[in-house]
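Please check this record.
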Amino acid sequence: MNTLTRHWMERTIDGADVRLSCISRKGAGLPIVFLHGFGSTKEDYADVALHPAFAGRPIFAYDAPGCGESECSDLDRVSIPFLVRTALAALAEQGIERFHLVGHSMGGLTSLMLAHQEPERVASFTDIEGNVAPEDCFLSRQIFQHPHEDPVQFLEDFIARNWAAPFYSSPLYATSVRYKVRAGAVRGIFESMVDLSDNAGLMDKFLALPLPRMFMYGKQNNTLSYLPHLAANGVELAEIPESGHFPMYSNAPEMWRRIAAFQAQATEPIVQPEVSRS
């Protein structure tokens, strides 16, 4: 049974009433939990239900508060720490204890902070261009580089800049942002992303995770300065051809192939070498 079920989840996070729009599927084995990026939605990952490599696997994804179809009574509270607490509440509601984690961009940073907080629950972590260093704030740092007191106008200007960017899928991404995120949630998300990237030692947190990690990036971003450092410290690198920051839009088949192969390897039992008796 590969059909995804759409459902709602209502929680109170830090005093804010949150109504999450979710998709999930029951199945056998460890669930795969997906966290989407800024200006995206859970539907970035819905095609997982169509890929034979994931047949029968439990799936869970949702729109972050203030994004997609999800609602939040106080958008000023939305930030990366708020999104981590939302993720923990959603996992508890779903009864998910241990899982494979996939996060993109904002969702990658949320995933990193979640995995850092509760590493024993994460079987593997696929980080799709999530923030691990200050240089990753090419989207979020615009809150400081191009400030505007009107959140709606800031978002419109953000859309215009990204529509014109010379990267795979940037116009596709940009044209839908206004429909996928509330303007009132942008400042808290972006400011917290920049603060964590600049001051929270994200690289050290990522490299210290005691679990299989894969860092996925588009070929257009293969100049990220830290890629050799990741590889030297045991992180699997997945470069996606004909892609920039959004492999799920530019080259989804290769993205899914790499995720499936990585998770399959991560779940293989460790075979201890036989002890020679000679």
Q: What stands out?
A: The longest strand covers residues 16-25. DSSP finds ten helices and nine strands in the chain.
